[in-house]
């Protein structure tokens, strides 16, 4: 982990805050090449009701447009939550060299938690993985978001039970 990793993770956190502002799960991603951000995105799954609109996939799509190729060689993807299997597959297939993530995902993480697709030597491409960069900040954002949803749900349930 470097100071630059923390700097770019802060940019991913800013993207995650954009998601949170529209009541999306606060996950953000940025893709950097030659110390320049070439793409950024945040989770839009609830907004689009489309299972593939994860922050990483949206950022990969934008980065491919920016470089004019499906090959994202010499890039680093920064994401606030450990990539899931779907995103890990897209990361590998787009040839991202390095993945830096914030919070671990014990339920779906495929960059070290459940498995490590990104560094599996059975694939023809592998990524360097740097976990836990500003992980506490990223994890707390998710914890607070889901706590707020649960509290909101509980309050609505109480109001239905006792409308006065």
TrEMBL record:
- Which residues constitute the catalytic centre? 56 (proton donor)
PROSITE patterns membership: CYT_DCMP_DEAMINASES_1 (PS00903), CYT_DCMP_DEAMINASES_2 (PS51747)
As recorded in UniProt, its EC number(s) are 3.5.4.33
Q: Print the keywords alphabetically.
A: Hydrolase, Metal-binding, tRNA processing, Zinc
Tell me the SUPFAM superfamilies matching this sequence: Cytidine deaminase-like
Q: Where is the signal peptide?
A: none
Please list the reactions this protein catalyses: adenosine(34) in tRNA + H2O + H(+) = inosine(34) in tRNA + NH4(+)
Cofactor entry: Zn(2+)
Q: Which Pfam family, an example, fits this chain?
A: MafB19-deam
Q: Where does Zn(2+) bind?
A: 54, 84, 87
Single Gene Ontology MF annotation? zinc ion binding
The record's remark on the cofactor is: Binds 1 zinc ion per subunit.
Q: Does the keyword Hydrolase apply?
A: yes
Q: Which family does it belong to?
A: Belongs to the cytidine and deoxycytidylate deaminase family. ADAT2 subfamily.
Assembly and binders: Homodimer.
> What is the documented function of this protein?
Catalyzes the deamination of adenosine to inosine at the wobble position 34 of tRNA(Arg2).
Protein name as it appears in the record: tRNA-specific adenosine deaminase
Please name the source species: Jeotgalibacillus malaysiensis
Gene that this sequence comes from: tadA
